[in-house]
Amino acid sequence: MCSFHRISYDGALGASDETIRQDLDEMQRYGFKIMRNPARAQSTVPSQKGPTMSWQRCLVLAMLSTTLVLGSGTSRAAEPGVWKAGLAKAKITPDKPMWMSGYGPRLAKEKLHDIWVKVLAIEAVDGRRAVVITSDVCGFSKASYETICAALQKQCGLERSQIMLTCSHTHTGPALRECLHVCWPWNDEQARTLVEEYSRWLEKTIVEKAAEALAQMTPATVWATEGMADFAVNRRNNPEGEVTAIRQRGEALKGPVDHSIPILAVRTPAGGLRAVVFGYACHNTTLASLEWSGDYAGFAMIALEQKHPEMQAMFYQGCGADQNPLPRRSVELCQEYGRMLAEGVDRALGKPMRPVASRLVTAFDFVELAYDRNLTEAELRAAAEETNVLGMISKRYLNQLADGPLPKTYPYPAQVWKLGHDQLWISLGGEVAVDYSLKFKAKYGPRTWVAGFTSDLMCYIPTLRIQEEGFGQETGALRAYALPASDWTRDVEERVTQGVERLVAKLK
User: Does the global pTM surpass 0.70?
Assistant: First the structure.
């Protein structure tokens, strides 16, 4: 049994000479047979670096043979150099009325479609393992994140750097404990109990499914590419009510965007598609209804799984803090954006993809982000007079203040994976602005993906540009997120950037 894969390499993609040599050597070591296309080999088109690099612009025809050894139960795909991968998923649609997250308090009783937690476990040839967890929720609190990491370390031996906990940031998903308190009636004891019970069940389910995926890993190949979808709009620079008219006039929308779709595909040794993990930098906020859904991302995953019934589709949110799907607020538009995203993924799957060598290195650190100033005791006492959510949270901080000063920094989670020779996957906590994705791609090259909203959704993470513009919740919204401070210091972007730099340096 065999399967054919076409892989094209181009110097203009930003890969170095050494990287391309390593990739070709790696494919030959796995059993690929390499041939150059004579027409492309004679090309005189220069690369971005200037000199002609005709060998880099060849078309590689690769055949991976998975000759089965009868009676032994082994195959060529199980030899060193090939990945192992395992999958698991669980439906997490609440089975009783439950509070939603993302906007003001909403109690959902019905569903537009089911919502899910999905897990991909991978293992490189040296035994290094990791899990990618995607979820149809608005975000996780630090409390939930710490609980999940501790359980996975105890049960599966995974360190924090090996756990990528992501969310879709759907605003039609369930409220979770200690996260976005102002979006549900946290000040009501019955509501807190309901959300606490669901959150604990969800955390337990995530750990169980991660363990399940790790326990059933089988030989696989891993591939990387990027797609494109253009419905994300910079919401800070384009008034929502004017977007349709601007487009109809044929005018360009303003502000930075990232319309790229990073795609990780997992295949069987015979070439069958097992899983696709993909991201997009855009708030998952087409809907604000009282029905459970994964919003546009949910519809995209449904469309992909309908077209590829044997495949598990997994979505994570990119750096979409200042991006919206516009126009919005109808199921029809939500389905359309989901279709556009799914088609962007599917088109990319149908084109040559980069084989990812069976190498995995992971790094994690907490970066200390500084508060501009803490709320004073007088401010907390004034707020504590209110009977709303922020009033109750202010009382909590007053109790902490009696035991000593409030913290002046926040431990911000940053994570970097390196898959194969040079596929970087950066994961950042909080609601991350699109500038970070564009910045790290420019800094580390086109084979760089950036996920936002991972691990801990503590608040917005702005860049200096957004802070200097000085308007909108994207500047931080620390108070709304129940943090004991008014704002971040103006060096928040510098601190995040330096933290990522340190992690990338560890991977070399």
Answer: yes
